[in-house]
Amino acid sequence: MFEIFSLSLIQGLTEFLPVSSSGHLILLPTLLGWQDHSLEIDGILHFGTLCSVCCYFYKDIFQMIRHFFGYYLKLGRSRDPFHARLAFTIIIATFPVVIAGFLLKRIGIEVVRSPSINAVMLILGGIFLYAADRFAQKNQTLQGMTFGKALIIGLFQVISLIPGSSRSGMCLTGARLLGFDRVSATRYAFLLAIPAILGASLLIFMDASKEGIQTPLLDLSLYFSLSFLFGLAAIHFMITFLQRHSLLIFALYRIFLGGIILWLL
């Protein structure tokens, strides 16, 4: 039960906090001497956080889908250019990580799953996150999101395929460098998480189905429920926290954790 709670907590919180979920999920079993968790557990944890972000932003998702089809495909009477364009930018920003993820899967993801790479990316990501948050111009809202800016954020998201980088951290760094305010950058990073987590979950479940599901259904249900609840909490925390505070605390945590890992190695 402790392992279920711990892995769900890490996935639920760190998927949306800019501190690297994959990095923590690699490190915890190593530090505690646990065996690597199965693919179906990895998949159900991702699915739980996917459902949490869809639940939290269901109004935005509905508006984007509705107006995307209405504005670009002329299906229905919806003609809101903002939500239609926002949906299109998310599609554009997702392409780079899809292509890079496919190539990395062909090469073998194990080439980047070492604790040393994890630690280095935690530190470097923390430094760049702080620099982008502290020194870049930052007054734009999502009204200023363009296709070109979305593509740049998507390229930053590619870096998150390396454990320790953090998907939300890389997206936040890219958005802040482009001048978006903290809340707008965070909302976009979370909306961009939907296709990314969905794709990762599908790939994981496909691989798991080939090996056969061995984890009891009750355990999988607990993994899903807990990661869903922790994911909701993390999203709400980030949205409210960044209305008043900077990203400094997350940058310091990343640098500290990465330094401890290197010292232990």
Instruction: Supply Rg.
Output: 18 Å
Order of helix and strand elements from N to C terminus: HHHHHHHHHHH
Spans where pLDDT lies below 50 across 5 or more residues? none
Number of helices: 11
End-to-end separation: 29 Å
Largest sheet properties: none
Number of domains: 1
Structural class: mainly alpha
What does this structure look like?
With 265 residues, this protein is mostly helical. The longest helix is centred in the last third of the chain and has 30 residues. The relative contact order is 0.20. It is globular, with a radius of gyration of 18 Å. The chain has one domain. Helix content is 76%, strand content 0%. The chain is built from 11 helices and no strands.
Characteristic terms for this protein:
0% strand; 265 residues; mainly alpha
Blueprint of the fold:
Blueprint: H1 2-14, H2 21-32, H3 39-56, H4 58-72, H5 81-107, H6 115-135, H7 147-159, H8 167-177, H9 182-211, H10 217-241, H11 248-264
Helix pairs in contact: 1-2, 1-3, 1-10, 3-9, 3-10, 4-5, 5-7, 5-9, 6-8, 6-11, 7-8, 8-9, 9-10
